[in-house]
Design goal:
129 residues, alpha+beta, 12% strand, elongated
């Protein structure tokens, strides 16, 4: 049976993690914060979330209030879900060169197909998809 050098293996893993961390940090520094956005069709409600769904911004135009609180809550919830998918898509693309696909999906970051209604018209890097 061959000897296994646990210290060498640990050192290699730490080095790989350090390189991946530096690459991810560089990409995020160049692109700015990763957020997902969604707006109602009439643009009376806009939601912004961080990856994972943390609400970071909410804009409600006065005319959206006429539908009542239950309808408003439903619309905000639906837009937050759409924005969360978009933030996950953007994070997926930001990290995909440094992190394995399976790990990204475990974290909840999944790409959105181009033909999906939640797909935005621009990619994470700001260029056209």
């Amino acid at each position: 049976m061959a000897d296994f050098d646990i210290e060498l293996a640990s050192s290699r893993i730490a080095e790989q993690a350090s390189r991946a961390g530096a690459e991810v940090s560089g990409r995020l520094a160049r692109s700015g914060p990763v957020v997902g956005k969604a707006a109602s069709p009439d643009s009376t409600i806009e939601v912004r979330v961080a990856p994972g769904g943390l609400l970071t911004g909410l804009t409600i135009h006065r005319s959206a209030l006429r539908h009542g609180s239950a309808v408003l809550a439903d619309r905000i919830f639906e837009l937050a879900q759409r924005a969360t998918r978009r933030a996950g898509d953007r994070m997926y693309h930001a990290l995909s060169s440094a992190v394995d696909r399976e790990q990204l999906e475990t974290l909840g970051y999944q790409p959105i197909p181009d033909d999906d209604p939640d797909a935005e018209t621009y990619s994470y890097g700001g260029g056209p998809r």
